[in-house]
């Protein structure tokens, strides 16, 4: 079923059409939310909020062909709300003690040569990470990303360039750290 028929079906109250929408986009939306948030529980919450919002507001979608971009815009907005909420929360003292304990133990742990892209992505500026994820993981064009993020195409290109540059630097630094620690990359 194409986006046009899915949207028309949902607007007409067809629950099967909404199930198809969910099946078609849930994995891609979850993956993108996870890469933005770095936490699967938060990504799952954002995914649920996205589909609830989409169901409630589907009648406001004027161009059915832009369904995917519309869903990603909703998801992005909920993801950034989640980040802002997380930043405002006061950490539990027990968590801080665990982090300190982990940090001390971490010094004793040998570094692994298996550099995970997701870990490197979490070190990138969130706005740059968003553009990188939408472009490479979700397959959106520069023009589509500009619409989703509400930025100019030039801004999207600049953020994409900076994100790639930053990601490369992070990965190179991680490998240099491994080499300086005398760890073989095999």
Determine and state the CATH class.
Mainly Alpha
Query: Residue-averaged pLDDT, rounded?
Result: 79
Element string (H = helix, E = strand):
HHHHHHHHH
**Shape-level CATH architecture:** Orthogonal Bundle
> Which descriptor suits the 3D outline?
globular
Whole-number count of domains: 1
| Total of DSSP H or I helical runs spanning 4+ residues | 9
Rg, rounded, reads 20 Å
**Derived structural class:** mainly alpha
First-last Cα distance: 47 Å
Low-confidence stretches are 92-115
Name of the CATH superfamily: RNA polymerase sigma factor, region 2, helix turn helix motif
Helix percentage range = over 70%
Q: If you consult CATH, what is the topology?
A: Rna Polymerase Sigma Factor, Chain: A
Please state roughly what percent of the residues sit in beta strands, choosing from under 5%, 5-15%, 15-25%, 25-35%, 35-45% or over 45%.
under 5%
> What does the largest sheet look like?
none
Please give the number of β-strands: 0
Family: Belongs to the sigma-70 factor family. ECF subfamily.
InterPro entries: RNA_pol_sigma-70-like, RNA_pol_sigma-70_dom, RNA_pol_sigma70_ECF_CS, RNA_pol_sigma70_r2, RNA_pol_sigma70_r4_t2, RNA_pol_sigma_r2, RNA_pol_sigma_r3/r4-like, WH-like_DNA-bd_sf
Protein name: RNA polymerase sigma factor
Keywords: DNA-binding, Sigma factor, Transcription, Transcription regulation
């Amino acid at each position: 079923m194409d986006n046009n028929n899915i949207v028309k079906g949902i607007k007409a109250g067809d629950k099967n059409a909404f199930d198809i929408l969910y099946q078609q986009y849930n994995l891609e939306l979850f993956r993108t939310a996870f890469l933005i948030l770095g936490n699967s529980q938060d990504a799952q919450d954002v995914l649920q909020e996205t589909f609830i919002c989409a169901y409630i507001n589907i009648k406001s979608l004027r161009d059915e062909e832009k369904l995917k971009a519309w869903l990603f815009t909703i998801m992005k907005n909920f993801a950034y709300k989640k980040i802002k909420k997380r930043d405002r929360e006061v950490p539990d003292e027990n968590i801080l003690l665990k982090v300190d304990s982990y940090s001390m133990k971490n010094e004793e742990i040998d570094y692994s040569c298996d550099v995970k892209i997701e870990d490197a992505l979490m070190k990138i500026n969130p706005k740059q990470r968003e553009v990188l994820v939408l472009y490479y993981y979700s397959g959106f064009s520069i023009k589509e990303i500009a619409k989703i993020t509400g930025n100019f195409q030039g801004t999207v290109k600049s953020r994409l360039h900076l994100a790639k540059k930053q990601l490369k630097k992070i990965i190179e630094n991680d490998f240099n750290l491994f080499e300086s620690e005398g760890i073989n990359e095999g």
